[in-house]
Amino acid sequence: MYRELRSHIINLLNADTRLDGRKLTEYRKPIEVEHNVVKTAEGSARVKIGETEVMVGIKLEVGEPYPDTPDEGTIIVGAELLPLSNPEFELGPPGIQAIELARVVDRGIRESKALDFKKLCIEKGEKIWMVIIDICPINDAGNLFDAASLAALAALKSTKYPSFDGEKVDYKQKTDKKLELEKMPIAVTVIKIGDKFIVDPDTEEEMAIDARLTVSSIENGTLCAMQKGGDFPLTMQDIDKMLDIGIEKGKELRKYL
């Protein structure tokens, strides 16, 4: 079954088309971004790419800084892959897929300096804001990396600080102070199947991949993070091609924010 599917996909790609009729570097439609979908969170967003749907919530908590960065706040990214979104997922501690999904989102935000961690400092060496980013796929129809990264950015963009008197946070009272985003890193996952490159794979295409490269870039096209996956190696020529596709498609996705 797998070999037949892969062979069929490669034959289609060689004819410059895909299972659903899309072009090789075309995203599924519609692409939708909805802000403030969870009223109890400081920020939230829901993103749909085709039938893939991901929700992200943001909580702001007061904590202690790390000893080596006493004047900087931080981010903590977690992902929970529920059977609700894909029957292949299982309940329990985060598995490899959930950990990698959280890591890809974390890396894009952290390495791009999308947030100025120093602005998250409340009192040097004593108190900081911790930005908790929770990722929850609602329906996994392929390409969770891009959907989750876009949803995280949209949620951060809508985040407002809760009321804080210096000692206690009142989560029932939101202020008008917004979390400042310094940059807008967009992640695009480029897939290699055979000798062809595609973006936004559906579930069946994900079963046939040789390698993937998630490329995060900011507004001016500067690369800020990469994550490689898949069982097969990539040549330098492959990476150059995938970077070009990732950065160019990132400009397209950014418009939805």
Characterization of this structure:
- The chain has a single domain, classed as Ribosomal Protein S5, domain 2.
- It is an alpha+beta fold.
- A hairpin with a 5-residue loop joins strand 11 (211-217) and strand 12.
- 37% of the residues are buried.
- Strands 1, 2, 3, 4, 5 and 6 form a six-stranded mixed sheet that branches. The chain has a four-stranded antiparallel sheet with strand order 10-9-11-12, with helices on both faces. Strands 7-8 form a two-stranded antiparallel ribbon.
- The chain has five helices and twelve strands.
- Helix 2 crosses helix 3.
| pLDDT averaged over residues | 96
| pLDDT < 50 runs, ≥5 residues | none
Quickly count the helices: 5
The CATH architecture can be named as: 2-Layer Sandwich
Strand tally is 12
Describe the global form. elongated
| CATH homolog superfamily | GHMP Kinase, N-terminal domain
Could you give a short account of the major beta sheet? 6 strands, mixed
List keywords for this structure.
alpha+beta, 257 residues, six-stranded mixed beta sheet
Entry summary:
The chain has 257 residues and is α+β, with helices and mostly antiparallel strands.
Could you give the topology of this structure?
Blueprint: H1 2-14, E1 31-35, E2 43-49, E3 52-63, E4 74-79, H2 96-111, E5 121-123, E6 127-139, H3 144-157, E7 160-164, E8 169-178, E9 186-193, E10 196-199, H4 203-207, E11 211-217, E12 223-229, H5 236-254
